[in-house]
């Protein structure tokens, strides 16, 4: 009888403590059954569940961080001898998984690769505007102010820059575009451009990458005599080496941000 009374008193005390701490309680009928019945042991009443219920993880959302200390990237959470790369202060990374240990699983937009970085070396950063453009981090920045030029960007890093000749009378439209189709060697005919301001028939236009339904494209411009100033019907004309680089670097869907 004394053992049963001690058990009942312990159960009542546990229930009172749980209530005062606002802990989740087992159904009251189950507790009553343990108190009033002959359950045999506290474990059989399920009371440990009051304190062992796991908390659900909150929904994970990727976020951006920047390095405020020199650090390294690692191929695994535990590797200590063979880093992927050394990282300077000010590099941006996207966290792509919940943190489990002292390293974070991140995407490096400059290299378009995933790796691990020490949580002690990074802090929160605003989401960069180019983050929504493309999964591989590539985008093209086109500046129509003089001297007109474009930059091939890998995340926040410039990998190439060259002068272009853009459209006269602002025929190259500012805005957001993507490369829609590509022709290695194109023949351009003004009769296919309804609002062309002059007639032309241009053969062997290499490395043509169309980015607008009005016929605007990045391409080799073998007939141009000046660079960095308007001179086309809306295209972004380039010298041979620049056009070749852009052809090999860009692809279908690569975004362009065109601005003054």
Per-chain topology:
Blueprint (H helix, E strand, L loop, with lengths): L1 H19 L7 H9 L12 H4 L10 E5 L3 E4 L10 E3 L4 E4 L7 E6 L4 E6 L3 E4 L12 E6 L5 E6 L2 E7 L11 E4 L2 E9 L11 E10 L6 E4 L15 E3 L1 H10 L5 E5 L1
Parallel strand pairs: 8-16, 14-15
Antiparallel strand pairs: 1-4, 1-7, 2-3, 2-6, 4-5, 5-6, 8-9, 9-10, 11-16, 12-13, 13-14
Helix pairs in contact: 1-2
Instruction: Provide the gyration radius in Å.
Output: 32 Å
Elements, N to C (H/E)? HHHEEEEEEEEEEEEEEEHE
SS class: alpha+beta
Q: Tell me about the biggest sheet? A: 7 strands, antiparallel
| N/C terminus separation | 89 Å
How many separate domains? Answer: 3
> CATH topology of the largest domain, which one?
L,D-transpeptidase catalytic domain-like
* CATH class wording of the largest domain: Mainly Beta
Strand order of the largest sheet: 3-2-6-5-4-1-7
Provide the CATH architecture of the largest domain: Beta Barrel
Oligomer designation: single chain
Mean pLDDT across all residues, rounded?
A: 85
Task: Count all strands and give the number.
Answer: 16
What is the helical fraction, as a range of percent? 10-25%
Beta-strand residue fraction: 25-35%
Keywords, separated by commas or semicolons:
seven-stranded antiparallel sheet, alpha+beta, 260 residues, five-stranded mixed sheet, SH3 type barrels, 3 domains
Report on this structure:
With 260 residues, the protein is an alpha+beta fold. The chain has three domains: 2-46, no CATH class; 63-127, SH3 Domains (SH3 type barrels), CATH 2.30.30.40; 138-259, Beta Barrel (L,D-transpeptidase catalytic domain-like). 16% of the residues lie in helices and 33% in strands. It has helices at residues 2-20, 28-36, 49-52, 240-249; strands spanning 63-67, 71-74, 85-87, 92-95, 103-108, 113-118, 122-125, 138-143, 149-154, 157-163, 175-178, 181-189, 201-210, 217-220, 236-238, 255-259. The strands form three sheets. A seven-stranded antiparallel beta sheet has the order 3-2-6-5-4-1-7, with no helix packed on it. A hairpin with a 5-residue loop joins strand 8 (138-143) and strand 9. Helix 1 (2-20) runs antiparallel to helix 2 (28-36). It starts with a helix and ends with a strand. The model is unreliable at 39-44 (pLDDT under 50).
């Amino acid at each position: 009888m004394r053992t049963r009374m001690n058990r009942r008193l312990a159960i009542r005390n546990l229930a009172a403590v749980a209530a005062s701490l606002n802990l989740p309680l087992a159904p009251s009928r189950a507790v009553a059954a343990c108190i009033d019945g002959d359950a045999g042991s506290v474990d059989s009443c399920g009371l440990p569940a009051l304190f062992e219920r796991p908390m659900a993880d909150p929904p994970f959302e990727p976020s951006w961080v920047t390095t405020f200390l020199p650090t390294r990237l690692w191929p695994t959470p535990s590797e200590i001898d063979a880093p992927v790369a050394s990282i300077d202060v000010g590099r941006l990374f996207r966290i792509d998984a919940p943190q489990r240990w002292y390293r974070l699983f991140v995407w490096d937009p400059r290299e378009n690769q995933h790796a691990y970085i020490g949580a002690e070396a990074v802090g929160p950063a605003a989401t960069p505007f180019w983050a929504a453009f493309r999964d591989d981090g590539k985008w093209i920045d086109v500046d129509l102010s003089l001297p007109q030029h474009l930059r091939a960007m890998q995340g926040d890093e410039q990998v190439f820059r060259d002068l272009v000749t853009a459209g006269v009378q602002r025929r190259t439209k500012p805005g957001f575009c993507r490369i829609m189709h590509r022709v290695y060697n194109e023949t351009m005919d003004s009769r296919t451009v309804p609002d062309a301001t002059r007639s032309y028939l241009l053969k062997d236009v290499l490395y043509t990458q169309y980015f607008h339904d009005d016929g605007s494209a990045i391409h080799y411009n073998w007939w141009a005599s000046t660079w960095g100033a308007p001179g086309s019907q809306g295209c972004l004309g380039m010298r041979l080496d620049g056009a070749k680089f852009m052809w090999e670097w860009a692809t279908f869907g690569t975004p362009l941000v065109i601005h003054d």
